[in-house]
């Protein structure tokens, strides 16, 4: 049913599908890595920026892969003797531009808080202070 909202048949005889919309959406649940900061570039609206860490954990060796940042507690891993656990932490740069949400984020979100973020992925380039071109991936909340 959801797919039908994004795709339509061009004709019954042709049978080809035409994509009418596209989607750029991301959902993250993780821990805030730093207190948010608010920046304002001259001539532009302010933006609140913070980092968010998401964890992926899995059991190495026999068994199924398990995901989820906080399902396994280190003490429980020891007590349950589940075998070797591997973990990967991914850091995301979050930018909040919407005025109401931007101000609430700046005022109430703190380092270490567990936070759900929904937004879109934005890929950009910038030149650093050493005049080196860099790429940046940002989540626009």
TrEMBL record:
It is found in: Mitochondrion matrix, Mitochondrion nucleoid. Its main location: mitochondrion. Keywords: DNA replication, DNA-binding, Mitochondrion, Mitochondrion nucleoid, Transit peptide. It comes from the Eukaryota. The keyword Membrane does not apply. SUPFAM superfamilies: Nucleic acid-binding proteins. CDD domains: SSB_OBF (cd04496). InterPro entries: NA-bd_OB-fold, Primosome_PriB/ssb, ssDNA-bd. The keyword DNA-binding applies. GO terms for cellular component: mitochondrial nucleoid. GO terms for molecular function: single-stranded DNA binding. GO terms for biological process: mitochondrial DNA replication. It holds the Pfam family SSB. This is Single-stranded DNA-binding protein, mitochondrial. It comes from Aptenodytes patagonicus. The gene is SSBP1.
């Amino acid at each position: 049913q959801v797919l039908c909202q994004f795709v339509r048949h061009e004709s019954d005889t042709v049978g080809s599908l035409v994509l009418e919309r596209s989607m750029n959406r991301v959902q993250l649940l993780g821990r805030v890595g730093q207190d948010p900061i608010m920046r304002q570039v001259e001539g532009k609206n302010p933006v609140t920026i913070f980092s968010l860490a998401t964890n992926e954990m899995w059991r190495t060796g026999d068994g199924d892969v398990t995901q989820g940042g906080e399902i396994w507690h280190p003490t429980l891993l020891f007590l349950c003797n589940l075998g070797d656990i591997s973990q990967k932490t991914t850091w995301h740069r979050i930018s909040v531009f919407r005025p109401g949400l931007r101000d609430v984020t700046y005022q109430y979100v703190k380092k270490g808080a567990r936070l759900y973020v929904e937004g879109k992925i934005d890929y950009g380039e910038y030149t650093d202070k050493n005049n080196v071109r860099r790429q940046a991936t940002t989540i626009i909340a």
